[in-house]
Amino acid sequence: MSTMDMTGDGLGQRATARVVLISAAAALGGFLFGFDTAVINGAVDAVRGGFALDAAQIGFAVSCALLGSALGAWYAGMLANRFGRVRTMQVAAVLLVASALGSGLVTAVWDLILWRLVGGIGVGVASVIAPTYIAEVSPAHIRGRLGSMQQLAIVLGIFAALLSDAWLAGVAGGAAQPLWFGLAAWRWMFLVATLPALVYGTLVLGVPESPRHLVAKGRLDEARVVLRKVLNMHSETALDNKLRDIEDSLRSEHRPRLRDLCGKTAGLLPVVWIGILLSVFQQFVGINVIFYYSSTLWHSVGFSEADSFTITVVTSIVNVLVTLVAIALVDKIGRKPLLVVGSAGMAITLGLMAWCFSQATGSGATLSLPGATGMVALVAANAYVVFFGVSWGPVVWVLLGEMFPNRIRATALAVAAAAQWLANFAITSTFPALAELGLSFAYGLYAGFALLSLLFVLAGVRETKGIELEDMRA
Predict the structure, then answer these.
(1) Which of 48, 61, 39, 60 is CA-nearest to residue 312?
(2) 143 partner at 20 to 30 Å CA-CA among 121, 232, 302, 373?
(3) Which domain holds residue 220?
């Protein structure tokens, strides 16, 4: 197998084409993560009108998948430790296929909520397993770049969902209008998610199990084969040393449990609290408001439905491009500097958005931004996405995949990811009500959280660039 990067890490490891490909296959779960959570964007107004929902009801219908994601993330670590990373990814694919079909064929809002919950569980599982798996098969010197593939897949999934939403609504003449076989366009927005879910399920059938999981299960010969193939390690001495390092890091606990996360700092190990707070702040800065409600938001301040869809797609393209920038930078300048820059930038741009919406006139369907204020808000919103996409978007997933010691990694990541989904639910479900109070208040609140995230990074986050997983400490 040809090498993608002939620069090793001093331990006989090389970044082969194989490790890049299997990391990409695992990261496809992130694509489904982004697609499944963002696809509701184009359907919000049609679902609200079709089922006659108020602000609280549509907020729950949009965000209920996130409760399922929290549940899936919570149990993903336990499933991964018992059955393996690959088998758990296959379970996630099955749940996502079922959700896509069910959501597109619903007859009432209650079964939409049910199928969104099912899909949410699949997304939650994928959100935990992909970064764990990628971190465990990657050489340390490019682990940040490969780990960032998760976020790249997420933003590509968001882009694909918003683009397909816009295209389907355009073909039908509106999200609520009938399309093929008499089904409304918003139903097809959900149904098309079956295709990437089937592709994901097929691809993960061909990826090897994580060597660290194999060692934990005592399957040393299989772990040796995976390390030799994936990391191009042909030196028996290097293989023996790597297996010994993994065994040493796992020896203290062969069957991870939630109680392994307990510590003296408010009941949890400090590194677990840092992971939880990274997850919470990633959501409390309000990023998913942009991707779940942006079409409705821009429509509400004077843009046409078609223009609102276009703006949303452009924003998602910006997100993809800056994620590529983050991938190029994360192993060069480190995780912490990117988070610092991102927090500061988000605080400023969110504050500018809050000011813009404080200038709005009218209310409800008649709300509008005067003069050039609408364009300033649009530029600020995209600048905010730039700062998030180059920092907190990819870097948090990189850190969550690598920052925990081997013996607690899957379990600790599950807890942190569950906290992330609950935070996502809190932000997403409350936005419609906050928007009715005032968009200026909502974005001012998110700006405050961005400022707090800056203080948290400066005080509590430590750099993990170039550190072997076996050397991570609690």
Answers:
(1) 39
(2) 121
(3) 3-471
Tally the domains of the chain. 1
Dihedral sign, CA of 311, 115, 30, 458? positive
Contact 2, 16 (CB under 8 A): yes
150-19-158 Cα angle (round to 5): 20
- Smallest CA-to-CA distance from 209 within 307, 330, 86, 322 is with 86
- How far apart CA 178 and CA 186 sit, in angstroms, is 9
- CA 466, 281, 268: angle at the middle one, nearest 5? 75
- Using DSSP's 3-state secondary structure scheme, residue 392 falls into helix
- Provide the CA 228 distance to its chain's centre, in angstroms: 30
Confidence of residue 10 (pLDDT cuts 50, 70, 90): very low
- Span 251-270, average pLDDT: 61
The two structure tokens encoding residue 27 = 């990261």
CATH number at residue 463: 1.20.1250.20
Name 5's bridge partners: 15
Burial per residue of 292-301, b for 16 or more beta-carbon CB atoms within 10 angstroms, e otherwise: bbbbbbbbbb
Per the prediction, the chain carries an average pLDDT of 78
Give per-residue pLDDT as tens, 235-253: 777 777 777 777 776 665 4
- DSSP strand pairing (15-16 vs 3-5): antiparallel
**Three-class DSSP category at 252:** coil
- CA distance linking residue 83 with residue 211, whole number of Å: 14
Encoding tokens for residue 90? 């296959």
361-371 pLDDT, tens digit each: 766 555 666 77
CB atoms within 10 A of CB 60: 18
Q: What's the pLDDT tens digit per position in 438-470?
A: 778 888 999 999 999 999 999 988 877 766 655
Do the Cβ atoms of 372 and 348 come closer than 8 Å?
no
* pTM, to two decimals: 0.67
Cα angle 244, 245, 247 (rounded to 5 degrees) comes to: 65
**Average pLDDT score over residue span 333-352:** 92
The string of DSSP letters for 218-237 reads: T-HHHHHHHHHHHS----HH
pLDDT tens, 296-322? Answer: 566 655 666 667 767 777 777 887 888
